[in-house]
Amino acid sequence: MDRRSRPAAPSGDESQNIYRIPPYFYIHVLDQNTNMTRVEIGPKTFIRQDNEKVIVGPEKMITVPPRHYCIVENPVVRDDDSRPVFDELGQVKLRHADQEIRLAQDPFPLYPGELLKQVVTGLKVVTANTALRLRAILDFDDDDDGEKHVAGDEWLFEGPGTYIPRKEVVVEETIRATVIKANQAIKLRARKETQDRSGNDRVTGEEWLVKQIGAYLPGAYEEVVDIVDAYVLTEKVALHMRATKTFKDIKDVVRKTGEEWLICFEDTEAHIPDVYEEVVGVVKITTLTNRQYCVILDPVGSDGKPQLGQKRLVRGEKSFFLQPGEKLESGIQNVYVLGEDEGLILRATQAFADDDAKKVFVVRLSVDAAVAMICCFSRNVSLVTAG
């Protein structure tokens, strides 16, 4: 609550003519002939004239101890010797609509028109790993760092240190450093075009990760979006990733928007998703024994692209991860175990080269292909016979 220079009941009644002002006290005296108000400072005995009226006081002077400050609105104009300046009528001159921050000094009175906008307050101590985000409300030249600030600029006052306020600056908020642990990162977003602490230029809305272990203090135009934990990989699990935007991953591989891929234990032991990556899910390893097999639909080729409509037979004993887009036709199946007096009748569903046939290389045909070949062979025989 502002302490203002308002009329106060003087000691004694209206008929009191003698005021004993103690040391470090003051009064405001109004001359009713000239309508001018002056200050009388103790210790003294003030004798009031008939045309004078005490409108404030006795009031105690304002004392600002070390490491404290106060804000005075409409401060008096002072000369080079720090003495108040008076106009030709004897009224003290004021800097109207201005403010003055006063630090530790001798006790002082409030002159007529001055207002104590902020009472005596301790200076703010900024500890280590914290900072004050400051914003300029007036243009000024900073004598501390030699920079020129314009209204709207924002910057940080980083601790440890004691912040001394200025009338041209307001404190927006206190920022505390975020501690980055092992297998962690923080996601940052730029609120405005700026340079990060690594010297990289960032545009408004851009996001990036900081993975360096320790305390990180965001810049004036940076904001912490989230703390990202790493996914710990083993030989039995992998991460199914999807790109939300075209970018380069940790292997400098260009990933297109919507592209999906796997990250396995052979790639990294712990993976922190990039800002343009999203984890679709965790893929568990598929293990086949020596008496099992499976058929993979739409297998991924050597170029990393799915071969739509194709199939691939995988025989055990083997362990593998299903790539994005792949799926098992009928799950994991058991092999047929035949005795000496048993056999299997097989039918080809499409033409393929049977490399399991003993001694000879046999081309297996599907039923429709075999019928078509027999019909063609029959026509050729007929033509030869007729000829």
* Beta-strand percent range: 35-45%
Give the rounded overall mean pLDDT. 85
How much helicity do the residues have? under 10%
Oligomeric category? single chain
State the end-to-end CA separation.
121 Å
The backbone outline, from C-alpha atoms, is: rod-shaped
Structural class: mainly beta
Number of helices: 1
Low-pLDDT residue intervals, each spanning 5 or more residues? 1-13, 369-387
E-strand count = 39
Radius of gyration: 43 Å
Major sheet attributes: 4 strands, antiparallel
How would you characterize the overall build of this protein?
Residues 1-13 and 369-387 have low confidence and may be disordered. With 387 residues, this protein is mainly β. It is 5% helix and 43% strand. It is rod-shaped, with a radius of gyration of 43 Å. Strands 33, 34, 36 and 37 form a 4-stranded antiparallel beta sheet that branches. A 3-stranded antiparallel beta sheet has the order 3-2-5, with no helix packed on it. It has a 3-stranded antiparallel beta sheet with strand order 8-7-10, with no helix packed on it. The chain has 1 helix and 39 strands.
Secondary-structure blueprint:
Layout: E1 18-21, E2 25-31, E3 36-41, E4 44-47, E5 52-60, E6 62-64, E7 68-73, E8 99-102, E9 105-108, E10 115-122, E11 124-126, E12 130-136, E13 140-141, E14 148-149, E15 154-158, E16 161-163, E17 169-176, E18 178-180, E19 184-190, E20 194-195, E21 201-202, E22 207-210, E23 214-216, E24 222-229, E25 231-232, E26 237-243, E27 247-248, E28 254-255, E29 260-263, E30 270-271, E31 277-284, E32 286-288, E33 292-297, E34 311-315, E35 318-320, E36 327-328, E37 333-334, E38 352-354, E39 362-364, H1 367-386
Antiparallel strand pairs: 1-4, 2-3, 2-5, 6-9, 7-8, 7-10, 11-16, 12-15, 12-17, 13-14, 18-23, 19-22, 19-24, 20-21, 25-30, 26-29, 26-31, 27-28, 32-35, 33-34, 33-36, 33-37, 38-39
